[in-house]
Amino acid sequence: MEKNNSNIDFSEKDESPYLKYLKEGTKKFYENDFSGSLKLLNMAIRLGCNDRYVFWRRGCAKSRLGDHKGANSDFRQFGTHLETEYMHKLLKDKVSEKSNFTDECVDLIVCSLNSQELKVITNRFGLVDGIFRTQREVGTFLGITSQRVSQIESKAIKKIRIAKSLENLFEKK
Predict the structure, then answer these.
(1) What is the pTM for the complete model shown?
(2) HSE-CB for 5 with a 13 A CA cutoff
(3) What is the rounded distance in angstroms from the CA atom of residue 63 to the CA atom of residue 45?
(4) Each residue of 70-124: pLDDT tens digit?
(5) Architecture of the structural domain at 17-81
(6) Which sequence spans correspond to the domains of the chain?
């Protein structure tokens, strides 16, 4: 059984080495060991990991350790992976899955939100990866204040509520 300096077992031949670092780094991140997480996530990236969430976690770890410039760079790297079309599809799937809206209503909701509102809603409510984020984290990711995130979130939620009320108005009985 081979081991390296960070005590990570590489005996399983079917798994890429960077996956071990990614799993361990993620585990340390959620244990609030941000410096340990940062070392492991850096190694995962060096070994070829280009998973967008590794950049988000590394950015959050850097932010918690006070490296806000490095965190911003990682959040931007993460952001390049999130395309508006993908977020539209994701939001549409989540809304239709968790509600009894008709397809037309779901389309109305998704189309009424601009790209910034989509980014706020999908990241704030964990629609991307199931992790709810604070307004501060979303603001850091988008390069805006948490107060602005709150404003955008409120506006987007109002649009969603309007679409729901329109659905009820035109519902056939």
Answers:
(1) 0.46
(2) 4
(3) 18
(4) 888 887 777 655 555 566 677 777 766 766 666 666 677 777 788 788 888 888 8
(5) Alpha Horseshoe (1.25)
(6) 17-81, 84-169
